[in-house]
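ARCHIVE CARD
Drawer: 12
Card no.: 0347
Subject: one protein chain, sequence and derived structure
Cross-reference: see card 0346
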Amino acid sequence: MIKPFFQNIRKEILSELNQAEKEIIVAIYWFTNHELFEKLCEKRENGVSILLIVHNDFINNRENGLNFQKFIDLGGELYFSDADNPMHNKFCVIDGKVLINGSYNWTYFAESKNNENILLIKNEEETVKAFRTEFDNLKNGLEIVDKVTKLTKFEIDEFNGLNSREYLANDIIYEAKATNRPEIVQEAFKISPENISVQKEAVKLNLYEKRKLICSIGAGIKDNQYLVGVEKGTLLPITITRELKTIENEQVACKSIIYYGDKEFANQNKQMPNKGINGLAGGVVIRGLPKLPAGEARMKMIFTIDLYAKLQVKFYSLDNGRTDFYRVDVKNLVENEELESEKLNPEE
């Protein structure tokens, strides 16, 4: 039996979930609907096995969003997909017998605004089994989530993996590969110049030369410790995130000098050129942090090096969004990755 639905989709899904006896698996890109979520939690409390894959972005994983930690604590299995391994499916399998599949995300927007559809499929053993198998394939490429760290509103752009600009840029990358036209890759870079994932995909598909860092780049932190951001030998482009916390009570400012090198202590390495902002030479500084006990004010430092060897260090508060940037050209710290064929002895 295959039956399409174009209206009252949430009601139909709830009806099928309510009949589950053993297992519910859900792979859904965006999930914000509390009624559907609470139904999953209720079924879990009644002993039904629940496995869930959603995308880890601000739409799904935010302070006022669904309480995925509650789901985990009830014994549900949660998996997050990310920008490097996005899961864009929208399907649900119930007791290995019922399949719900279609365009419908489990969101209020999908229910109230979009024109959506689902297919309710029953008594189609091979089809349902195929989706069950695909779910296993998806989750095997992800790590189970034990503790959910909610994203803040200041991380929206960092976890914004799907919008029209990025979608088109990636589409051009795949067009370049499919049509053997690497020359159009630069068009993709121009459409989304700040998106490192687009550049990564071009390198992954061998559409652009591989480049690597010849020494580490990092930041000086407490007691002259050297926090390595990007390690020596890392292939470009790259984005690395480090989370920091205050070390003093009611600390209202935090600063860090950016270094390059591989010595143990920060000041044993070479300081980046004097191109800092807010008066800090070769570094970053945040002022106006909230007055909290030591260790409770949270900050992020994001090191990004693009294919053109442009380094950006973004330093920002997760509590109030105060931000500083440091940008510099690091072409002298980058070299082309030697091809395997070039490493061979010509006589071999």
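Annotation on reverse: The longest strand covers residues 238-245. The radius of gyration is 24 Å.
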